[in-house]
Predict the 3D structure of the following.
Amino acid sequence: MNKLGLFEIALLQIIFYLLFWIWNGFIALYITICFSAICFLILLITIIAEWLEPSKVPRHFFFGLMFVSISTPLIVGMIAIYIFKIPTILMNK
């Protein structure tokens, strides 16, 4: 089985987050914030662990995959908020 590259992973994440934004903007907002924060904390922990004891994990994991996992939900969220006008909908309820 072929390994997924960063481009394919980013496309899968975009589809995943867009489906959440289409389904329910309120839940998608929290999922976007939580997943980005969790991935950022994982990145910090792995960088500290790598600094303390170097491993054989490729560098593209730290800076490629984690960057994609942090930035994709935020970018999709900003686009979805702009398109669907989510904050104005949430404030009127």
